[in-house]
Design brief:
399 residues, alpha/beta, Aspartate Aminotransferase, domain 1, Aspartate Aminotransferase, domain 2, 4-stranded mixed β-sheet, 44% helix, globular, binds pyridoxal-5'-phosphate
């Protein structure tokens, strides 16, 4: 009976071009990866600085593996609080210029844990409509009043703030770089509104750490508002090339989370070798990532301008995340499949990850891509765009 229901759902997704499936890979991450036994150019990774397979990170992990072993053995509050955990927390707090820092196992767990610890019944949260799913889940878990504002619409946010009275705590939560659109949160306006209406501000720097800001600290650095943001969350799984996440903020905030964040308390500490690798990544980002970041932004610029020149709608992308709006889910899948046949991996992103009728290809460039890689991709986009008649879909209505 259950099987039949599940099968019907799967068949429906397949019919609508919405089914998702895993592809077997081998070997490490990089600009070229091996998928289903074939080498393909990788244009969908969040490994922006190419650190996931960096020798220095691997050596740091290997050395720690010898020193501290494989597993943390228990929750950090029991006996799994290892030396490499606090070393990484100290390095992150120093780098981000905050009093304190707390590690989480993943970005997903950081968001669900932080939000549900800080907010509860009687509070209200204002959340950008395009915030990451882990923020949405954190808000649902918190049981606070959940108010979505239209994407980056500050006038709408102000109206909502004005009319929200009688709540105990109020908070605005936003992605820094929006993960499916590649545009930036208007942080200066957000912190100004937060001050005016006495709100907490929480930012998710998942895609911005190592990517934004003069020193790679993220979007808060880019906009010069680091001291006006109460909760700076970010991940170690993207530009840092590792795994895990952090929350940077005041000592009081961190002590509170240690006592209250369920996804921190009721789970095993991160493997120490991963913490050691991440510490190396933070060191590289803070000391010598400027040339890498320059390369990354140059590649992003070349790719985005090249796609626009060839008639593709890259939405409001301002970063190395470049969506190519296709609207139709089946066409997005077909386009991705054709690119794959030509040895290029760009994933199709479809509802419910993005709103209805905004299916897209999501292309990401990294510092590791070469000029030849970019030229090859641009050429294939042109050819496949013609073949699949992209231009006629471009004029379809968005919702
Ligand atoms: C990827 C991502 C996360 C989740 O981070 P993981 O470490 O992969 O769990 C959270 N927020 C945003 C905005 C992300 O892009």
């Amino acid at each position: 009976m259950v099987e039949q229901t599940l099968k019907t759902a799967l068949t429906d997704w397949e019919r609508d071009g919405l089914e998702r499936a895993l592809r077997p890979q081998s070997g490490p991450q990089g600009r070229i990866i091996t998928v289903e036994g074939r080498r393909v150019l990788n244009f969908c990774s969040n490994d922006y600085l190419g650190l996931a397979d960096d020798r220095r990170l691997k050596e740091a992990a290997a050395a720690c593996l010898k020193e501290e072993g494989v597993g943390a053995g228990a929750s950090r509050l029991v006996c799994g609080n290892m030396a490499s955990h606090h070393r990484l927390e100290e390095a992150l707090a120093r780098f981000k210029g905050t009093e304190s820092c707390l590690l989480f196992s993943t970005g997903y767990m950081a968001n669900t844990g932080i939000i549900s610890a800080i907010f509860g019944r009687g509070d209200i949260i204002f959340s950008d409509r395009l915030n990451h799913a882990s923020i949405v889940d954190g808000i649902l878990l918190s049981r606070a009043e959940f108010t979505r504002y239209p994407h980056k619409d500050m006038a709408a946010l102000e109206e909502l703030l004005k009319s929200a009275s009688g709540f105990k705590k109020r908070g605005i939560i936003t992605d820094g770089i929006f993960s499916m659109d590649g545009d930036l949160a208007p942080l200066q306006e957000i912190v100004a509104l937060a001050q005016k209406y006495e709100c907490l501000v929480m930012i998710d720097e998942a895609h911005a750490l190592g990517v934004m800001g003069e020193d790679g600290k993220g979007l808060a650095e880019h906009f010069g508002v680091e001291d006006k943001i109460d909760i700076q969350m970010g991940t170690l799984s993207k530009a840092a090339g590792c795994f895990g996440a952090y929350c940077c903020g005041s000592k009081i905030l961190i002590s509170y989370l240690v006592n209250k964040a369920r996804s921190f308390i009721y789970t095993t500490g991160m493997p120490p070798s991963i913490a050691a690798a991440a510490q190396k990544a933070v060191e590289i980002i803070s000391k010598d990532s400027q040339p890498l970041r320059q390369r990354l932004w140059q590649n992003a610029h070349l790719m985005r301008e090249g796609l626009k020149q060839r008639g593709f709608d890259t939405m409001d992308s301002q970063t190395p995340i470049i969506p190519i709006l296709v609207k139709d889910s089946a066409l997005a899948s077909a386009f991705s499949r054709r690119l794959y046949e030509e040895g290029i991996w760009v994933s199709a992103i479809r509802p419910p990850t993005v709103p209805q009728k905004t299916a897209r290809l999501r292309l990401t460039v990294t510092a590791a891509h070469t000029r030849e890689d970019l030229d090859y991709v641009l050429e294939k986009f042109k050819v496949i765009g013609k073949e699949l008649n992209y231009a006629s879909y471009k004029s379809l209505q968005r919702d």
